[in-house]
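Hypothesis: this fold can be encoded by more than one sequence.
Test: take the structure tokens below, design a sequence, compare later.
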């Protein structure tokens, strides 16, 4: 993990938040390459679950919502961690994080009685900080979807089964922090609420588990680093009938990447009750009215990004040196091509290289770099996962060809400038 954290800091993927003030626990900022990677993760998700499907639409609900939303959803009463204090070292920790009856900090075996701690972050709206102006920063994006169920139904005339997808920030006052971006107080979620007839819910649940597992694998995560874990009855959230986690083998151990829950009709029923608005679905053929069941694949953008980074990180011995290479998939690599002049003192080479960069960046993310010798430039691009290096040399001025080097194989080929763009586009779309 230390190597990944160090690479992310050194090359501008992830920085500690407000670092010049000493940082703020469990908050992080994405740097120039990190933001590209994260945007690619979100774009791949959106394409797979919204644009490539006929049964899904998107939504972007606000972070601040009416406080009654959280009463109805059960978060005001039930979104708690049970905390205990170790009597030996006085550290506070989550009761469910105690393994084998021992304090994770000092190994102590005696604890205070568990107390509930609500994880929602509060704020006040308007000029007066009284109870009436209390609002919460949403702890999950899901509720924005449920409260818009009727709006989406009325404006899109959807028939069951169909789903609503959303990507957005969520906030939790996490007690146990650490493990880098795995558990943060401000993070992004990618959530789907998939509405179905109650009798079809179990089948839909199974299908979504398979689809989501395939999504991670298709984007490059090795199968042996992914597994499914079904929740026991005692660990299910208050709204769930069943839940399976997709777990990833992070450097700190197997941990949850995404949860796929059967939320039943809990949320729509609750919001109908608390708002007084009828959120039932009416079948156009039978006229039957009922609350649909909901299957919820709920993942974290930051956790997915961390898993993609961890899985892509490779060290290889090449000609007596260690090559660090991020083998990110084509869709996720922040930069697809780097254009590198072999001699930066030769103005003709530099001009040609800059023109190639300009041309390629119309189609995919491309950078130009002339700040080191070619060997070092290759190593720099390998380390951040750039898919192709395009080198312009003296011969290029004569034969109008450039050297294209592929990141994973390090194979080099001379490609005619006229064909360069189509060659790279073909390779990237294969
Ligand atoms: N709507 C259901 C829900 O929010 P969850 O298991 O609490 O379920 C879903 O969260 C996903 O959100 C998790 O699988 C994880 O990827 C991400 N997530 C949750 N808490 C997080 C945190 N503190 N930091 C980063 N990601 C988090």
């Amino acid at each position: 993990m230390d190597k990944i954290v160090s690479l992310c800091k050194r090359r501008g993927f992830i920085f500690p938040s407000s670092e010049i003030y000493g940082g703020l626990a469990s908050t992080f900022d994405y740097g120039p390459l990190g933001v590209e990677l994260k945007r690619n993760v979100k774009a791949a998700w959106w394409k797979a679950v919204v644009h490539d499907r006929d049964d899904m639409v998107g939504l972007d609900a606000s972070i601040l919502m009416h406080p009654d939303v959280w009463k109805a959803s059960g978060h005001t009463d039930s979104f708690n961690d049970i905390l205990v204090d170790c009597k030996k070292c006085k550290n506070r920790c989550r009761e469910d994080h105690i393994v084998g009856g021992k304090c994770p900090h000092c190994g102590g075996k005696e604890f205070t009685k568990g107390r509930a701690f609500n994880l929602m972050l509060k704020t006040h709206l308007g000029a007066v900080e009284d109870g009436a102006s209390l609002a919460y920063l949403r702890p999950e994006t899901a509720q924005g979807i449920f409260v818009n169920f009727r709006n989406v139904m009325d404006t899109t005339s959807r028939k069951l089964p169909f789903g609503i997808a959303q990507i957005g920030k969520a906030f939790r006052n996490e007690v146990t922090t650490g493990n880098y971006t795995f558990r943060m107080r401000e993070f992004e979620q990618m959530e789907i609420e998939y509405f179905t007839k109650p009798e079809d819910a179990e089948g839909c649940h199974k299908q979504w588990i398979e689809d989501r597992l395939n999504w991670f694998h298709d984007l490059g995560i090795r199968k042996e680093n992914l597994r499914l874990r079904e929740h026991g009855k005692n660990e299910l959230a208050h709204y769930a009938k069943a839940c399976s986690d997709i777990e990833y083998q992070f450097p700190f151990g197997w941990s949850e990447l995404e949860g796929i829950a059967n939320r039943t009709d809990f949320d729509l029923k609750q919001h109908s009750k608390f708002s007084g608005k009828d959120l039932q679905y009416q079948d156009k053929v039978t006229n039957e009215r009922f609350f649909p069941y909901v299957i919820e694949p709920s993942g974290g953008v930051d956790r997915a990004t961390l898993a993609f980074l961890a899985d892509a990180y490779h060290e290889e011995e090449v000609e007596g040196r260690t090559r660090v290479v991020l083998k990110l998939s084509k869709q996720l690599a922040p930069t697809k091509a780097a254009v590198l002049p072999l001699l930066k003192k030769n103005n003709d080479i530099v001009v040609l290289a800059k023109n190639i960069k300009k041309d390629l960046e119309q189609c995919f993310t491309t950078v130009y770099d002339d700040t080191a010798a070619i060997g070092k430039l290759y190593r720099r691009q390998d380390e951040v996962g750039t898919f192709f290096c395009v080198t312009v040399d003296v011969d290029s001025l004569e034969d109008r060809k450039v050297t294209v080097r592929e990141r994973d194989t390090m194979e080099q080929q001379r490609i005619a400038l006229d064909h360069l763009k189509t060659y790279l586009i073909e390779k990237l779309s294969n």
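The pocket of glycyl-adenosine-5'-phosphate is lined by residues 140, 142, 172, 174, 183-184, 187, 189, 191, 256-259, 296, 298-300, 302-303 (CB under 6 Å). The two ends are 32 Å apart (CA to CA).
Hypothesis status: open.
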